Write the structure tokens for this entry.
Amino acid sequence: MNLPPISALHTDKYQITMMYAHFKNKTHHHRRAFDLYFRSLPFGNGYVVFAGLERAVHYLENLRFTEEDIEYLRSMNEHFEPEFFDLLRSFRFTGNIHAMPEGTIVFPDEPLVRLEGTVIELQLIETALLNFIGYQSLIATKAARIRHIAKDDMLLEFGTRRAQEMDAAVWGARAAYIGGFDATSNTLAGNVFGIPTSGTHSHSWVQDFDSELEAFRAYAAAFPDQAVLLVDTYDTLKSGIPHAIQVGLELKQQGKTLAGIRLDSGDLAYLSKKARKMLDEAGLTETKIVASSDLDEFTILNLKSQGAKIDAWGVGTKLITAYDRPALGAVYKMVSRYENGEWKPTIKISSNPSKVTTPGLKNIYRIVDRKNGKARGDLLTLLEEQVDESKPLVLFHPLQPFRRKKVKHFRAIPLLQPIFKNGERVYELPSLDEIRRYHQQQLSLFWEEHLRILNPEEYHVDLSENLWQTKQQLLHDIYESIKAENGHHD
Ligand SMILES: Nc1ncnc2c1ncn2[C@@H]1O[C@H](COP(=O)(O)OP(=O)(O)OP(=O)(O)O)[C@@H](O)[C@H]1O
Ligand SMILES: O=P(O)(O)OC[C@H]1O[C@H](OP(=O)(O)OP(=O)(O)O)[C@H](O)[C@@H]1O
Ligand SMILES: O=C(O)c1cccnc1
């Protein structure tokens, strides 16, 4: 894979201003820890498919300020002193990162990435990591929803022309593949990531000839055995399908097969049923029916319920733009400060209890029932805690701690993997096909109740007793200190 390096300037200006203010304050080397996570599930789905790590790794491994970047920053603000630029010249990512492998099924408020490092490096990279992971996870999740409905049908990603620019098309194609699509129409994504590609032809091919039949013949001559003919340019039932059948029969005489037809407008259920019947009656039983036209998981579900005879679905706009939820809303919050030789948890308080951060360096375990192999819940713990699999585990809802359940005979599977240690990558990036397989294995851990696309059952992410106590103590200490300060002022 040959990807261009990503500029260190791919960040928000406030990261640079904070870096400078830390430099002036002589606190730039202070060590901090952050968590990257999201707070609410997109599309009404029951889970998110984690994606974006590979791009994040590539970014972090190559993160440098070039002389040109430095020149630009010099022109940006007259306060920046030359010694700050020396710091940027020697800048390298030196931190520790743990993250979920791509393809993992993840839930709100779980650290998807846990980072430790100097405060300035962790500030600098926040924006890019949220950018990559937020978008790619969103598309992988949308793709997984569509896969859930399509079952074993072929799914083709057609979104590039409607995507929010080039990176979204290319990395979106990769995310869609992770989420379960079979192929992409984007040949760059095919080349860079090794994703299978697929292509039919457009209406312009048909318009380019004096007749539809001539157009179909010419296309089939170029790709005997692979041609998928678009049948809706003029009249699907009266012209497109009969012409495709004529070409299919001509191919048959040469010992070849018309691979498929594509329906791109009209009543896809009605037309596909008619088309299947016409093709079968002509003896073209192997010719597949591809459909496209503003599809998403709901339309596909509906078409299937109408008995549509569609073998392959081409999905563009609504997948690649995450049409019904254009951002995951991932966040990156400081969770701990290293002071006087130890980590001290920090918290961000909000009037909305679900937005109060969970402090400290944490691990996350998937609690899996040993008998049926199904996940019972995820458990966030403090880093130093061990989960003892030989004893019953009490899980409770962090916002409603009186709701408790006891779990026995379980495995506690740690989800965060070491990715960088002191700036060195310690993680071997899996191949895309390994990621896809891992994603499928992940899905098999969950009951269908959590996987259905409409009103899924909530999957629980709980805090260990110790972590919950730490959070309550910190909240208590902060409110006490605010009270004390207000007392002084009164
Ligand atoms: N049987 C069906 N049931 C439910 N939705 C359908 C059915 N057939 C097609 N659709 C969907 O209805 C929408 C029709 O889109 P639209 O009104 O733009 O017309 P079109 O048939 O695509 O024609 P054109 O491309 O010529 O504008 C698409 O989202 C398509 O996927
Ligand atoms: O509907 P989407 O899910 O976004 O899928 C992509 C659409 O892009 C193409 O149409 P377009 O009109 O751009 O080109 P065409 O001339 O090939 O029909 C294709 O025929 C699909 O309808
Ligand atoms: O191959 C196709 O049919 C295709 C590709 C991209 C967009 N629409 C259709």
